[in-house]
Amino acid sequence: MRPEEAEVYVCPACKRPMQLRIRQQRDDEIVDGALACPCGEEFPIVDGIPDLVFPRQLAASDLEAKLWYDANADTYDENLHLTFDTFREDESRVRSRLVDRLELQPTHRVLELGAGSGRDSILIADRLGAQGRLYLQDLSLAILRHSFPKMMAKSVPSEFHVGNACHLPFADGVFDAVFHFGGLNTFSNIGAFFSEINRVTKVGGKVVAGDESMPVWLRNSEFGRVLMNSNPLYRYELPLQHLPVSCREVKLEWIIGGVFYVIEYRVGVGEPFADLDFEIPGIRGGSHRTRYYGLLEGVTPQAKAMAQAASANSGKSLHRWLDEAVRQAAVRDLEGK
Ligand SMILES: C[S@@+](CC[C@H](N)C(=O)[O-])C[C@H]1O[C@@H](n2cnc3c(N)ncnc32)[C@H](O)[C@@H]1O
Of 147, 213, 278, 336, which sees the most CB atoms within 10 A? Predict the structure, then answer.
């Protein structure tokens, strides 16, 4: 970790800036030290890699994933072709098209979560220049280590940390793009994962995230049943309900034999725009907002019929007629007349 990176990281627990404690530095690299937060959390830097995992006591599914990737890190690259072979897909072409979705510029600052052994990281790095920056994160240091040699030849400066994709150690709006592929289904808090991504991405920045999910229309086919039997991860459902309201231009596509989803979007601010206040033409009248917020108690069928007839007679919409009638009656009673 370079000393200037201490300004980029914040406490994954409370999001406050942290103090850098250096115990050993070699040239431009902090080899041994810690990042300490005023909230009391302290995160070690070991062999140059900050361990920003939060919470320390991982949720069951995160712990299970970490232990699995710790144990299988050395054979991950050897075995991954099996997935692509099953669907006769070209892995580098598939991954390249995934990374293209980020629409990267050479100067972009990019975060990859659950980067694993760096198979997408090298493609992201190829699209960035010396003025850009790539942050690679994984919960398992054992698998992340396999990305180190792959990244050495790349011109973009890269920073590695061990962390939990559901609790990011970055300030708001620091990344031009965020990428994740392959681990999302088992993340313990998918809502927090997307909300953290949107927090750390600049407004207008691009997000691409995907994982396994057998499409609902194929679940009862032979294709679906056989594949879900071999790989239970295909049973996971789409995580669309976890997307924050600030997602814009959302695109969804199934790739790799149609059994992996990719969600792509831009980060916006708050809810999307809609004009809720223009007067809707017609007999009912009113606006989207008055129809939602303006509902009062019901009236008798006779009173309703009278109101409809009276509004038609007056040439006003039912909304306008009622609004005026209610205001007149309210003023009368509020003023005690
Ligand atoms: C299937 S691998 C995908 C690796 C890489 N993205 C790829 O496409 O080859 C899933 C990765 O997600 C990581 N992972 C699992 N849970 C995580 C979490 N909560 N936070 C960060 N990484 C996590 C695993 O350690 C593993 O490296």
Answer: 147
